[in-house]
Amino acid sequence: MASNDVAPSQMGEVSRWIDGTEMPPAVKVMMNILLNEATMDDSGNTAVWDIMEQILRAEGADAVFAAANKGATSGKDFVGKPFYLDGADIRWKVSNVSLSKAASDPMVFPFYALLDITNMETGDVMPLTCGGVTFCTVLYRLKSAGYFDTPEYAEGQPFVIRAKPAGMGEVLIPEKYVMPKMASQRAAKPADATSK
């Protein structure tokens, strides 16, 4: 295996695809950085070990089944649900997408993100996977620009995934989640100066 755990043949194939595909220089730089940081999704990845450990620690059949079903959630199944994300919890993976298909369709992307998020609704820390040109590019740019360096909350930055109609389907986009204001946080209405 190469130093970043991507199989050498897969790394070479993705590298040749990046080098041979006409794209703006900034995009090519991002693609090469993602390739350098990416790993294959194999049995050595942390999320898989975590799931296995949860299964092995489970007490009783119901707990075993619950742990077994707790694998990574797809971003398309998490649309509209708020979560926290720390930049250190973003891992890039090489997808098994056909690079010949990627060469003919600019929306096919050879990488995806594996995120360890904190679900705001439940407080659970869970793995979330999401790919696509827009999703990965937004996360990459936020991380490279230092957005995660000063998190608003101890758990990380607040996000929500939005589905935006595009072409033949939807594009998933990570967006900053704005916390709802509580009644005590809302500004009190100023008293009417004429009333007594």
Provide keyphrases for this structure:
6 strands, six-stranded mixed β-sheet, 33% helix, disordered N terminus, 6 helices, alpha+beta, 196 residues, single chain
Could you characterize what this model shows?
The chain is of the alpha+beta class and 196 residues long. It has a domain at 72-176. The protein is built from 6 helices and 6 strands. The chain has a 6-stranded mixed sheet with strand order 1-4-3-2-5-6. The protein is globular, with a radius of gyration of 21 Å.
Low-confidence stretches: 1-6
Task: Trace the largest sheet across and list its strands.
Answer: 1-4-3-2-5-6
**Topology pattern, helix = H, strand = E:** HHHHEEHEEHEE
Q: Tell me the total number of β-strands.
A: 6
Overall 3D geometry? Answer: globular
Major pleated sheet: 6 strands, mixed
**What Rg do the Cα atoms give?**
21 Å
Mean pLDDT: 81
Q: Calculate the terminal CA-CA distance, rounded to whole Å.
A: 79 Å
What structural category characterises the helix and strand content?
alpha+beta
Number of helices: 6
Helical fraction: 25-40%
State which percent range the strand residues make up.
15-25%
List the helices and strands and how they pair.
Layout (H helix, E strand, L loop, with lengths): L7 H13 L4 H13 L8 H12 L3 H8 L4 E2 L8 E12 L4 H6 L6 E9 L5 E7 L1 H12 L12 E10 L2 E8 L20
Parallel strand pairs: 1-4
Antiparallel strand pairs: 2-3, 2-5, 3-4, 5-6
